[in-house]
Each structure stands twice: as C-alpha cells, then as structure tokens.
Amino acid sequence: MLQLRPGCECCDKDLPPDSTEARICSFECTFCADCADGVLGGVCPNCGGEFVRRPRRPAARLANNPPSTERVVKPAGCGKAA
Fold it and tell me: Residues annotated as region Disordered (predicted)?
C-alpha cells in the first residue's frame, strides 16, 4: 500500500492524501508538481526514476488506511539527478 507521504522532499509543501499536485517515483519518493516537473525535470534525484501522479486514496478509506506522517525533506533543497 502506498505511504502517501505528507510533503514534498524538496520544498516541504504540504501534500495531503487528496492532493492532485503530488508526484512519486517507483520508490515512493514524493515531490510536488512544481519541484518534480520544474526543478527536477521529471527525474527523481534519489533513484533516477520517472515521476507519475500519485493516486488519491478515497476519504472513506483513510480511517482504516491512514497516510504516512513521516516527512522526508532535504534541508539543502533538491538538485537534478546526476
């Protein structure tokens, strides 16, 4: 099951479970659309994978399947993958 992390790893923007702005790679690295598409050019800086829109979990399912509360943030910001 997807973790649905609560924020962008790059800029720490909030990304609630119903956000249409969340982007993930196959390892569930999580970024906002602005950082994923703009700053990172569509390539995950952690694994080099592509980003896709993160699916939204129906509100009725959140009680039994809550999103993650763990925030992963890069204090120095993000740069493109090498």
Answer: 58-82
- CATH code at 1-68: 3.30.40
Helix (H, G, I), strand (E, B) or coil at 21: coil
| Torsion, CA 71, CA 75, CA 76, CA 77, rounded to 10 | 30
Domain residue limits, the chain: 1-68
The DSSP bridge partners found for residue 43 are 50
Tell me the whole-structure pTM to 2 decimals: 0.87
* CB contact set of 5 (below 8 Å; sequence gap of 6+): 15, 28, 30, 67, 68, 70, 71, 72
